[in-house]
Design a protein that fits this description.
heterodimer, A: 116 residues, mainly beta, Immunoglobulin-like, 4-stranded antiparallel beta sheet, 0% helix, globular, B: 114 residues
Chain lengths: 116, 114
């Protein structure tokens, strides 16, 4: 079984500043994947970034990067140079490796507001 | 870029009616999913589907729900005898492989049961 915890229900950041969203997880699996999804007001689920647990190097996608601490089971998302379009709900999710179609388990989300 | 498409984007139905939500997964994907998000809550897994059968389902996915891949492109979720608490956003998703690969989501079908 997998659980994902996001302890920050809401966060705010000024445009052009940097913000970090926290996520911790628990899993009994040896191999797994971690994801951050963005859900803007349109409510579409958009993949932001993914991390393979067996890779030590932190994933980076343009202004988005993660700090993956496997021993601590922590997977935080850093958004640099925040833009108004980053305003959205951000969900951390994990996915196991076993089974042919292992499901995503989501956290409760962090609502990020980017202000002028 | 290929995407998962869902119809309808919004449906209002009366309590007790049957609803079919439709999805066209990304064409070369083999694994299909339905997730649900009640307003203000987190996204919940309903069911996964592979090789024309259900791979896994959650406790939410009871006899009221069924899924089908009627042809080579569509993937449907049927909700029988809808209840008020079925009001939610329903997301279809797909991935090309199972374990670990990224799951891509559609834009969702917003179901309102009145």
């Amino acid at each position: 079984a997998q659980t994902v915890t996001q302890s920050q229900p809401e966060m705010s950041v000024q445009e052009a500043e940097t913000v970090t969203l926290s996520c911790t997880y628990d899993t009994s699996e040896n191999n797994y994947y971690l994801f951050w999804y963005k859900q803007p007001p349109s409510r579409q689920m958009i993949l932001v970034i993914r991390q393979e647990a067996y890779k030590q190097q932190n994933a980076t996608e343009n202004r988005f990067s993660v700090n993956f601490q496997k021993a601590a089971k922590s997977f935080s998302l850093k958004i640099s140079d925040s833009q108004l379009g980053d305003t959205a709900m951000y969900f951390c999710a994990s996915r196991g490796y076993t089974g042919t179609a292992s499901k995503l388990t989501f956290g409760t989300g962090t609502r990020l507001q980017v202000t002028l | 870029e290929p995407e998962v498409t869902q119809t309808p984007s919004h449906q209002v139905t009366q309590m007790g009616q049957e609803v079919i939500l439709r999805c066209v997964p990304i064409s070369n994907h083999l694994y299909f999913y339905w997730y649900r998000q009640i307003l203000g809550q987190k996204v919940e897994f309903l069911v996964s589907f592979y090789n024309n059968e259900i791979s896994e389902k959650s406790e939410i996915f009871d006899d009221q729900f069924s899924v089908e891949r009627p042809d080579g492109s569509n993937f449907t979720l049927k909700i029988r005898s809808t209840k008020l608490e079925d009001s939610a956003m329903y997301f279809c998703a797909s991935s090309d492989r199972g374990a670990g690969n990224t799951i891509y989501f559609g834009e969702g079908s917003w179901l309102t049961v009145v």
